[in-house]
Amino acid sequence: MGTAVIHFTAAAISDRGRKRPSNEDAFGYSVENGVYVVCDGMGGAAAGEIASSLAVDEVMKLLTNRDGAISLPNDAEQAVAAANQAIFARAERSNKLSGMGTTMVALLAQDRRVWMVNVGDSRGYQMRNGHLQQITVDHSLVEEQVRLGRLDPAEALRSPLRNVITRALGTQSSVTPDIFEIEIEPGDLFLLCSDGLTRELSDASIESLLRVGAPLEELCSGLVSAANQAGGHDNITCLLVRVDA
Length: 245
Ligand code: CA
Prior knowledge:
Elements: E1 7-15, E2 25-30, E3 35-42, H1 47-64, H2 74-92, E4 101-102, E5 104-110, E6 113-119, E7 123-128, E8 131-134, H3 141-147, H4 153-158, E9 178-183, E10 189-193, H5 195-198, H6 203-211, H7 216-229, E11 236-244
Antiparallel strand pairs: 1-11, 2-3, 3-4, 3-5, 5-6, 6-9, 7-8, 7-10, 10-11
């Protein structure tokens, strides 16, 4: 890689899908600050939308509007904790919002490294040399069952319990995210997405859609269209970040 300067390019789309009355997903990013985030909210009425947008706003605020350099991954952990607290406190003040929460998957970039941070079942993937790999591990009941050998992945996809997540932001007074550190290379492509994408499309389908050499906006709309064609049962959000030399 030598001393080539690294640039990032990003694009994102969030779509309501074909079945849900509203979109409870949210995303935000700042290429300049190296912060990218996708959240998938849950809760009755408008609660899911409030939880996911609160989480995105809090993380963007804390990781973009600061003087001096940010320190990763510590500052990312603090931002997740602050987002958790903001949602939890808001839910405690209102019966209507009680129990609301959100998933989060975030990518933080600094120099030649990125950190992926996740809570819940929104996913982060890395595509390198045409090969797509899931980086995050879902915090979901079925994922735990798969890891224990009690379900195979195909059964997990069909399970009536597939919606049950085991970690979320805002439902408890504290939460622990998973953090993955990755050394980047030019050409790397990162995908952050909600489960509305990954429930409809296999990793192999996503990989082949991402192999098309198109601008990131077109890749995002290709993913969303394919998920809608496959049923569009849930809100669909995808955020792509490419590393260019
Ligand atoms: Ca969802």
